């Protein structure tokens, strides 16, 4: 039998009865939790993972290190299964992330986002009810997460956390039918459609927040029946928040600009287009989804969405972005007698592309 390596021996100290030894071991092992070397945490039986789950209840510094390690190893299917199938562990994560003094809340947000790759987690979170924390007035776990994300931006709820990675969790939840239903319907908690709270972040300074929100919007738009409500100016008014990231400082002829949504008219001369091409592509896919029905296509034409897409095609040197632009233009410029034939196939095509931020 081979002698254990020094790192394997150190992993054994995660279960030490002495706090100072657990803390040193856990803090040291964070640096070994990425790449192939993290196999030291995944022997048969996954005892180190079980120890790390317990250490989340330890002193804050030890707990934060344990959370970071679990984030880094939770892409492993066996580890993910172990974490996702433990309902008491999920409740522990919520108790930590909603504690405004817990220093590792952002690591918990990342861990929840990773765990959402497991098919059971979105449904569990949507159904989970728990005691109301200080940071939220709702007993529903999803409402609590939304309050953290919206109210906690800029570290206003927890001085150590901005909760940006919850946007990735929301994107994965919106990839499920029950998740789309949640994001596109008013919730009893405050009678607000959750997407209304997220769209204001499409031009936020955080790349993670922008990317996750864009993906949540796109995945929610697979619920075709919600489109009229989502683009209604008197309801969610989604369209300007999709279009603004697509727009730069270009000027439009008056006959085009005056018909655009008021929010995208008269933009400042220093207006910058979204710098990340993957986010531009996601917003364009959202526009493409909105072209699914003739009713919304007509609205998009009236609001001069075509010229905006035209300018994106000219300005962004990315084959993927230009391909989506061309698809949108083909639909918006096509005669409706031909365009109506595309409804089914186009939706089926995009349904294979629900955004996964792994």
CATH superfamily of the domain at 1-74: Leucine-rich Repeat Variant
The helix-and-strand class reads mainly alpha
CATH class of the domain at 1-74 reads Mainly Alpha
Provide the helix percentage.
Answer: 55-70%
Using only CA atoms, what is the Rg?
Answer: 23 Å
Strand content: under 5%
Shape: elongated
CATH architecture of the domain at 1-74: Alpha Horseshoe
Q: Distance N terminus to C terminus?
A: 37 Å
- Nearest-integer average pLDDT: 94
- Largest sheet features: none
CATH topology of the domain at 1-74, anyone? Leucine-rich Repeat Variant
- Compressed to H and E, one letter per element, the order equals HHHHHHHHHHHHHHHHHHHHHH
Question: How many E-type strands?
Answer: 0
How many helical elements? 22
Set down the secondary structure blueprint.
Elements: H1 6-12, H2 19-29, H3 47-55, H4 60-73, H5 77-84, H6 87-97, H7 105-115, H8 121-127, H9 141-151, H10 166-173, H11 177-184, H12 194-198, H13 207-220, H14 227-231, H15 239-243, H16 254-257, H17 277-290, H18 294-302, H19 305-315, H20 319-333, H21 336-339, H22 343-351
Helix pairs in contact: 2-4, 3-4, 4-7, 6-7, 7-10, 10-13, 13-17, 17-20, 19-20
Outline of this structure?
The chain is built from 22 helices and no strands.
